[in-house]
């Protein structure tokens, strides 16, 4: 598409104004149009304080919601920090900001305080935005809006195509965004990610309103915006892929020691832990409990490309775990803070199993009737907890109180309470 054609296309952006979800995936106005260039061209990357100050002033003076996106370098770098921030707002145009060169964007965040931020899959980007001082007070999540509205595909590309009739090029989503300088095709892709976000937001708002779900969505958005930062995960080493093979405590100790050693190295080198040592290699070493470097080097993941020094550091980690007293070894499994796994309910508490079966069936039917995924109607964990330990008197007021205590939003409480009251009356007879 030439610049002139892109300008013409922009003058008549096609929104559905409420495309029924069952029609999503094909434009109501003909074949989708490839979106090849941002309407004002690729903006320069903001990489110094003077240019950032101009962007802050421009976006503070803009009008309406602001589209926000962030690019990370998952699989390449340690952690989930942002390596590019994209914004677009009426009256300000688009901006691409380098948060490595400008690590403090709290001034921009403050300038946009009170403004609605439009993000796609907000919970993925909010943590890395918070790290650089950008914390919204109001959001509109187009991915979550699509789920609530019943769209079968809610990726940004699918939503833009199905609702607005444009095709976004998604070929650079998994590249190493820590690369400097960023190649022009990547910057074009990044700018296009926010190009139509506000248009998508407006169309989805109309669709949610048409379905009578707009208030539900607003409650969900408020809950995301108000949520505190996530607590660090306890014993993250237990999430090593392939852990189901590791059963003995000594082997678990080896996984923990190798994982922690790998994590320290990855953090120091600022690389993805998987690039230091694979999960598969950690599990292999744990299962084999190698007696020395020679035995370690024969295992998958510790092949000929690994130098003697590296092998020695991994063997040292194995040896540290092997030398631990039994009292210092990790216990198998993670501490259970909630109900046991549902597969065990039939043996442990048949009545609870019957309640859960009835609740799941009721929630599934209601979710289908409302046209949304079950997990968006009510958290599966909430249903499990309620069925395992129901209120002493499982009437509607008690169930509503319990649901609210588990964090369900008012619209969810209203919708699922009748279903769950009926399920809790189920017994194993």
UniProtKB/TrEMBL annotation:
Polar residues compositional bias, start-end: 1-18
Region (Disordered): 1-40
InterPro entries recorded: 3'-5'_exonuclease_dom (IPR002562), Exo_C (IPR041605), HRDC-like_sf (IPR010997), HRDC_dom (IPR002121), HRDC_dom_sf (IPR044876), RNase_D-like (IPR051086), RNaseH-like_sf (IPR012337), RNaseH_sf (IPR036397)
Gene3D superfamilies in UniProt: HRDC domain, Ribonuclease H-like superfamily/Ribonuclease H
Domain HRDC stretches: 248-328
Protein name, entry field: Ribonuclease D
